[in-house]
Amino acid sequence: MLKAVSLGPGDGSLLTPAARQAIGEADFVAGYKGYLELVPPDLLEGKQTLSTGMMGEVERARGAVRAAREGRRTVMVCSGDAGIYAMAGLLLEILEAEGLLDSIPFEVVPGVAAFNAAAALLGAPLMHDFASVSLSDLLTPWEVIERRLAAAASADFVIAIYNPRSKKRSDHLVKALGIIGQFRGPETPVGVVGRAYRQGQAVRVESLGGVDVERVDMQTVLIVGNSATRRTGGRMLTPRGYHQKYSI
Questions:
Q1: Which residues of 202-241 are buried (b: 16+ CB within 10 A; e: fewer)?
Q2: Per-residue pLDDT tens over the stretch 189-198
């Protein structure tokens, strides 16, 4: 058995019972070293673990598949939701490439995604249609990312931005906000959430024209409002449209 298990944003209260059970029943737990640190220690007692750093995704995925092939109950832990910018897809690709789809049971245990956590802390910014775009060009060409940003912005989607800025990609966020700014006004609310539900959490609402990019890193999620999004009581609100049909 091989499971991709979602840890949620990091707070133990947001680890689902299904995820807790899957880890508890496992013999072998693989994950990025920072994510293994999010697992309650009691759930790892007596288990073999495989920990790799950044850029070690293929290594740990192959290690997890190998353990499952040997008959061990194996889980790959991922922050947020395992099926959103995480390891569920790579595990499935390796099972497919090695012809193991019919011989190794595979399951994805869902969880609280990063944009869910960020949205909850910001209020209600995702009440209408939204798109999610990662600014990491490690696996996706930047030209493709630019086209997706422009398409989402021109269609007036609320936009959740993952992987916004790193030391090697210090200018990507500025470029991305510039693309969105071709279709949105400079006062458009932008929620900036760092380390949601973890130590060091920071939540603020800025304007599209005034985002402090120097305070943004890879553990930050931004939510850019659409043309209807507004600030209210220090929070972000994207109306669903009830006010147009009902008296509220």
A1: ebebeebeebebeebeebbbbbbbbeebeeeeebbbbbee
A2: 999 999 999 9
